[in-house]
Input
Amino acid sequence: MQEDGDVKELVVISGKGGTGKTSLLGAFASLAKDMVLCDADVDAADLYLILEPEVNERQDFQEGHRAVINPDRCTECGECRRLCRWNAISPEFEVDPIDCEGCGVCVYFCPAEAIDFPLKTCGELFISETRVGPMVHARLGIAEDNSGKLVTLTRKQAKELATKRGLRLILTDGPPGLACPVIASITGATGVLIVTEPTLSGHHDMDRVVELAHHFGIPASVCINKFDLNPDMTETIEEYAGQRGLPVVGRIPFDPVFTEAMVQKQTIIEYNSSSEAAQAVKGIWERVISSL
Amino acid sequence: MIISIASGKGGTGKTTIATNLAVALGPSVKLLDCDVEEPNDHIFINPEIDHTETVSIKVPEVDMDKCTLCGRCQEICQFQAIVLVGKTVLSFHELCHSCGGCMEVCPENAISEVDREMGIFESGSRDGVEFGHGRLFVGQVMAVPLIERVRAAVQPDKLNIIDAPPGTSCPVISSVKDTDFVILVTEPTPFGLNDLKLAVGMVSVLEIPHGIVINRSDLGDKKVWEYAEQEDIPILMEIPFDRRVAEAYSRGKLLVEELPGWKEEFIHLYEKVADHARGR
Output
């Protein structure tokens, strides 16, 4: 068995949503060898839609607690309502499960010991096989708290799987945004690839994730999707990346072939590997993997 | 009335809908961007900012002269944000949920709360449209307290439009909770549909009336329409892919100001939303 440190992990992030993270990662999966796929966008996991994994192992993800008042024991003294900072307890002494933060303060102080505090099941984790390799993915329950812990667990399982099978690479699909789920998806990674688009919003959001990657000391590179929708903005972004010392690993043209491939449940490499967009993706893959 | 704009999947066009709707409807509208991780509405609105405030959350500070190392703070904390280590108590502010439990439980009154800055809230206006948004500081873990600050700027006597972050978890819930109607923006692709279903699940749990806007409606397949019909969810608007639209967006321009006919389209969207919001 190989050492943990032999496994490299590339995480694809974007800041702004909808720039093409998952389509690009799917295409990488068609090009890579000896890798484990990891879908860390547990809030809106989409990679499985292209790769149609066969689930071998399923685990409940339990995290945190919810307060539940037992009306038989409750004396309606009001102490819980006074202490709750989330206004989660109604005048009828019922806890709103969505507002409850799971802090347990009401449970601790209830003089009648009338509040139960069961563990919550707030998602599921899957270990699967796909036509391009093994995959670890997850599903957060509806309206659950994405604290980043399910993201962390998904990545940990991917790493264990890679180590167990002697695979040297993990390709991780990250979530959009900047806060807990994104931080949980990049900490400790070998490198991040930031996928942006040539729009003011794409540029703005990229700046913030570049800063985030820098904050956590993770090497980052940039690629620009749909670059021809605004070539001037593409150049502006590339200049900015140059000033920040970030390698620009490629440009991908706008091409409905991405959507067509997705509808056919294929990666763009499988669907049309000679298209201009697929060729661009191959170039990006080669540059990213050689720099990792 | 409060209308919120959400989507499971990112990049489907929430910002486009929120900003164009606000400007099409003109003065007496308040636009609040609750995507504090990656706020973009200001790029299109260009508001004159006349108010800036730093937003903080309460975190514990332990007075070690009073602390007897009893460990009750550590025992009550569900988030491992306050820990007894040897002869001292460490508090990890980035893990703290500000529940106040440690302060309440401390028998020596050794714990007080101090402010920890996590982002800024800015507000202003543009041609009568009032605007507010939050910007989370880079490296901050929790977005919700800042979203709540942005939500607190809602004015009940006005039409309020709230732009939510992508996804379906806590930041989205905080953004759309207690709004009168949610516009779910999607695209007719397998990813768009999958994430739309998650978003519908979320608004159903919250029991908020909702409808769908289909963006880039001619790229993809027909399954979003089939789903909407099956679930009896109204389709409020369809926007075909148009390079001029994509190009205006890329430059931070509003459709209602750049291209003819769009102002009427967005006013019509509002009328449909108002009808559905009233109808239930």
